[in-house]
Design goal:
5 copies of one chain form a homopentamer. By secondary structure, chain A is an alpha/beta fold. The first copy, chain A, contains 11 helices and 8 strands. Chain A has an 8-stranded parallel barrel with strand order 1-2-3-4-5-6-7-8, surrounded by 6 helices. In chain A, α5 links the parallel β4 and β5. Chain A is globular, with a radius of gyration of 17 Å. The termini of chain A are far apart. Chains in contact: A-B, A-E, B-C, C-D, D-E. Chains A and B meet through α3 of A and α5, α6 and α7 of B.
């Protein structure tokens, strides 16, 4: 039940690729629509982990990079209070080679209770099979006005810790100081910044990541900012410099 | 858990006959209301598979053609956000001789979560019993304005891949180019075009099928366009020419 | 899993007595309120089966007539979209001596999915214990304007066949021709006409039954038209003549 | 699964004390708020049974009087259509020494289906463990205008019989004649009149009980009219004369 | 299943720290946001128990102080009728070293039935594993106007007793006399006053606690009034004097 397998120098960069279910193929182009491309990128880019839904893991995962199996999910076609239920058993995730399960909790949703309960069960099953449990905590629903407000992000982080997550994936608040509080709220649960949509420039993105690291984050889970990049391997190298080697944005950009 | 049993020359034509539950007998006439007629047609027309609900499989299936057992379903009498739950266990489907289970997911429905979860469980059970899992992905519900819009069809295809379907049944978008994107989005999940309601002419229908094949589809699941045809066996021969022998619409029509 | 035990000359008359739960005692008088009276009537009237809820089977059933245990039910005090869930396990039904389970599906109700799913599970359990599964298919709910419209009755019949019912209990459409289509839609599932409320005269009732038989029905499930009759045994004899001996209404009335 | 243990001369008086959960302590005073007082009263008053929720049975029940464990319950703080789910397992009830389980069904509630289903399961479990199943049938919800109307009370009684209750607890209709019909509707299920709120005078209360007995009731389940009495033991003696010794109200009052 | 482990001189002070999930980190400062600080405080302050969610127990609990594992919870981001479902299994709580489980029931909520049922199951599992079951009973929802009204607090206490709680955590009513009734209503279930938000002054807080003890409470569960205190250990000492040594507020303040 350790996150160690996903870390180098106590830092980790996870390649997220669950957008096909969450957003649909509109996030993709001719190249990155193909999970084979992503699997290659994960290996060549020396990512510390790759995030797949069960269907991709079954058909494309080749065990070169540690796997986080996302065990719940939903389409964005549905309106109303969000809920995503388990679609992959923990046992099956383990058989597919996963070293961790990922689960999204929409904190603040009218269906929050369903997800907190389900994560509770999944977390125990994962730990029994020596897998880590990583929580994507996304405050959402009518009650949430701004999901990157510092107090909301800190609450998300804490929710993950309290619920037993070994690591939480949360959005960046926008500045180091307020994100520090979120990291502190997460306690011993490791914090991974959510990459989010493609940033206007690479500097913008790396600056955010640098901020998260300076605030105490363990790393990030990044998708679109890598595989929508014109040169994903170069972005991967830059991130590695920044995160694993703990360099500045400038040094990383020169990678 | 292979689709091979449903393919000839890597292509497949499935005879769909789950309309009795989904639409009621209004789709039928004196001849095709009788499942015996369909079973004969499936064999004589050399279909690669036949799709039945459990009741038909129990009383009419004779194992001459590989069986896809549709394990969920609903009537169209119900209004509101669509949901269809499991009505046949995977174990029972296997005992009835099925080589695959079929399951409809109404992506975009307010009850999408119930179906994604249920399919997730069914898919794992099917694979354990060496059966394929085929997903009918039908975007529906108040949130869906046009269920053949290219981005919606591509999202449907991708949803099936991500959820672990071995094959997806989706609607045709209307043109080759946009359907290519749907096929690409489905990745290694095989794409079967949904036959849909009876087309105005046979040429219209075959042209659609040709388009789907040119876009990369593995085949189609067809019901009304065959068994509502004045000469179902002739239509079956034409489809075989078109799909399995990969001929043109003109050549197929001369079959 | 055969209906044979409920048939004479391939025809069957089932004595329905689940009205106590479905309608309340308003259907009863001082005599027929007593299940002992019904048990005697079932035996003396040579019915092919008797329909009880679990409570009546436990306290009154004496095994002289084959038992159909109704395993779901509801009161008519509840308003809104109808739903009736399982209240007797299949195993317990078998221990009580039942040769079949009966289950009501309110097709078209907003809760249809719950009942289709539950019937699916019950049907498999029943077949494992060598019991038949009989579906009462009653289209109901806001979406249903007229539950004896021919296309609605045919849809009900077909729903039963598709869902795996060995027999369906449906309402009479009012004329032979349209009921023929319902019977055809039911395929190999045997059709039992629902007796319904007390008909104005015995001739009216027997004429309906004759119509159903002429349309291909296997028989009927009758309650109020027998046990609300001034001479239930005479009505039973008339029905036997009509149904089992396949006589005319006139001949039956002379019984 | 017999009610015998709760009867003397085929009659029974059950001391009901589930009001703490159902109504809150407003029903209590300094004396009767204490379950020890009730346990003593049950023994000294020679009641045929005592009704407790699991918490009281665990901490106060001493096995001097047969126990009916109430296995569902709710507070009256909740508004809307009533529902009470199982809060004590049948197995645990048995371990606590219960000879019967009690379960409330709010017939007519929009959630009636949940309770009928749950009672169905509980009743079978109870019978397997040789315990009786007693149903409190309370018609309630928006659809119910008057829960002591004769046809409503008779429906309640019948619902209990059909669902497999060994005994039903129902409200008194107000007169012997109409209650007779309710008792008849309950068939072999024994009828216990519900004591209800404290009657204006003891004569009023005993007259009601006498009416219920004359109508065929087996006895009553009484709470407030005993333990809110100024002299509970005297009331208990009066009830014993009336119910068990089948005396008149006058004779009972002289007890 | 005894509360003994949490008591000294039949009194107990529990250090509550489930606010991270229930309220979010807004309750915390740089020091008390860290569960290590709380664990140290629990030991150094000689608390009789410490209350953690599973995530904190897994990562911070060191067994120096008896553990109450809170097995359900929710964020306060969700609006509408409150519900909190189980997020930690009783078995897992036991493995983490807990001597009791804690569970919140929102009495009066439209979802009360879910929580009463879940607590019922959890309570039995806890007793089987020799753990106590402590109920946080918080009347809440649209139907509750004032959750410290004497009759509401007494109802909360009684609900816990009836449902089988070994101890209840309830709010203080504000005066000794009315709280006495609540304590009486709780019977043999031990009453712990809920500490609530930080009181204006320490005297205010200790006076409330003294009132609860004088009314018969076993002790209190306190969080913010201790760990938001400028000198938590001093507050702990004062509480110990007051509660365990049963001194006056003045004596306690001199601690």
């Amino acid at each position: 039940m350790s996150m160690e397998v996903f870390l180098s120098n106590k830092r980790g960069i996870l390649l997220a690729y669950d957008q096909g279910l969450e957003h649909g193929p509109t996030d993709f182009d001719e190249r990155n629509v193909d999970p084979t491309f992503i699997m290659e990128l994960a290996a060549a880019g020396r990512f510390n982990g790759v995030v797949f839904q069960k269907g991709l893991a079954e058909k494309y995962y080749d065990r070169r990079v540690p796997l986080i199996l996302k065990v719940n999910g939903k389409t964005n076609l549905v309106k109303g209070e969000p809920v995503a239920r388990q679609i992959c058993s923990v046992k099956y995730a383990s058989e597919l080679g996963a070293k961790a399960v990922g689960y999204t909790i929409y904190a603040g949703s009218a269906h929050e209770d369903i997800m907190l309960e389900e994560f509770g069960r999944i977390q125990e099953e994962a730990h029994e099979l020596k897998m880590a449990a990583i929580a994507w905590i996304y405050p959402r629903g009518e009650a949430i006005k701004n999901d990157t407000a510092p107090e909301i992000v800190a609450y998300a982080a804490r929710t993950g810790l309290e619920a037993g997550a070994d690591a939480v994936k949360i959005k960046y608040t926008g500045d180091v100081e307020s994100f520090k509080w979120a990291v502190k709220s997460a306690g011993k649960a490791k914090v991974f910044m959510s990459g989010g949509p493609k940033a206007p420039t690479e500097v913008d993105f790396l600056t955010q990541v640098r901020g998260a690291l300076d605030a105490g984050a363990t790393g990030l889970a990044v998708g679109r900012n890598v595989w929508q990049s014109s040169d994903p391997l170069r972005t991967a190298r830059a991130l590695r410099k920044l995160v694993i080697e703990n360099r500045s944005v400038d040094e990383a950009l020169r990678a």
